[in-house]
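User: Can you predict the 3D structure for this chain?
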Amino acid sequence: MATVEAGGDSLVASAGGTRDEDMLNDDVHRLELRNVVGYSGERVVRSLRIHPDTAHMIYPIGCNLIIEDVESNQQQILSGHDNFISTLTVSRSGEYIATGQHTHMGFKADIIVWHYPTKSRYATFNLHRMIIQSLAFSANDKYLVSLGGKDDANVVVWDIATKEAVCGSRASTRSAGPASVVACCHENDDVFVTGGDNTLRVWTLDLRNRKIHPQDINMGQMRRNVECVEVLPGDKFAICGTTTGDILKINMETALLAKSGPSKNRFSQTIKCICVLRNGDLLIGAGDGTFATFNFETMTRGRTGKVPEGGVSGLAVRGQGHHFYVGTTRSQIYMVEALEFELSLYRTCQPDGITDVCFPAACSDLYVTCGLNDIRVWHAHTSKELLRITVPNMLCTAICVQNDGGAIISSWSDGKIRAFYPETGRPMWTIENAHTKGVSALCVTNDSKRVISGGGEGQVRVWNVTKDTQRMAEALKEHKGKVTMIKVRQSGAECVSASVDGTCIIWDLKRFVRNQVIFASTLFQNVCYHPSECQVIATGTDKKVGYWETFDGSVIREIEASTASVYALDISSDGSFFVSGGGDKLVKLWYYMDGVVSHIGVGHSGTITRIKICPNSRYIVSVSADGCIMRWDFPSIPRPQDTLPGLPEESNGANGVNGTAH
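Assistant: Here is the predicted structure, written as structure tokens:
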């Protein structure tokens, strides 16, 4: 434990462990995370790094840090933060990685130092308030320099060997704006640079007196907001990128502005990233998506390229610089050949959030996701995108694949139901004006002859569909609020719909009448049939999972499932387990009969919107509102007896349930 006087405040720094293990015990185990699809390019600037071994790429996804083999695409996932990662840095030797995070107003944000050879947590520092703005290791990995956000406004030097804070100070003068970036020298451990809104300073560490002394750079009448800083080899000059699109060359020895430019043809929408190439030129990334080489001696651009959408949020040069990687604010990662400046997509995800996920029948190698603007088909084991179907400016709310694999059927916020060919993504047919307030739920019968949809106005509609004709068979009008989920029985003779009006209704699809209705004091978000189809489980905003009989709609039990609303639910094919997820951002695997948690998966940074167990029950796929896809190993645990709760004999598991049995 160390106390630091920083900016007049007495702050406490600690090196400690993780909080995630508090949820785990001898009976509840951790779900193993197999791989992740995503990239926090929108939230994290300078978010892409190549490790000095040149074989691994490092980038954040939510609260996780991904170390990915560039050749094999195998991932190692470091989890420890409890909120979004805000910044990261890699030491020059490659032995350490440091990450900082966001946290809530008034709370302190963690810095985690990871030991790269063992892929384990080395130390945790907790001193800055609300957000860690920037991090940098000193030349020989002796110190870590951290910079807090505008609510903290302090810069702190940490000793890596002792895991203690050495000293700290306010990062900028009272008359200047907040500092936003820090960079260390290549050779001198005791000197570093900070930059920000109308502030640019060179700092020198006085270890004997445990102080850091700033020297403001004299830029004359020029006023700039510095967005990124890179110290050149030799430690004599530093290069700074600004929000006005020009580049400043600073003499660190004299603390004077040496040069600025270009005077014309500046970069647009802020210079976000700067890398130094082997030939001495700079590689610049800008907020308008432009990336270019730049000669800082002549202050002229060289070769220029541009990403298809979004701005540049990260640049990483690999090896000798024959190719480099560009991360974007639209959460895409591109590989660029240095000679031709040709882009090729390396990693992609859905940055605007994912609303649904499904597997084709009896196929565990592929899954389909949907969200704003598009539908995507993924290969489960390589996490590669195989197909993208785009409908601009529309939200796809639900998706399913016909059992025979003939079509991908989707529901959209514009009130249409669209079907696409799964091989090419070309449109097959469209039902216009399927619902007046958007289509919010969708399912298809096993014979692929019927589609059942739910709308924002509360109606459930049954459609007879073929490639040539789509005709509504019936409209069922008992719900008073938006339909959130529909599931159909294997025979196709019955379905259940969940609604935010607090009811789940079981419908007879032959007579088009209500068989049963389930009432609860909640806004239902999801419902599932047990494989035996004699029970359903449903969940919603009351944070519970309830079991009900399909025969008479009577409640069997209710389980306290979460500390927040539960949106995602799925049952294994044999009915022994179910999984849930929601606002608490945890994936929970439950014993169905006992109603107790077996495993918990920690990793999501956004609300979990949907979750699915693959058909062969080997892994679980969960998707979230921040666009992240996580694939978890389904644990090898003994299957309990197939006796259902609520049935006769001692097999009724009500006595062992963390909830209420009725």
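Residues 376 and 388 are 5 Å apart (CA to CA). The chain has a mean pLDDT of 90.
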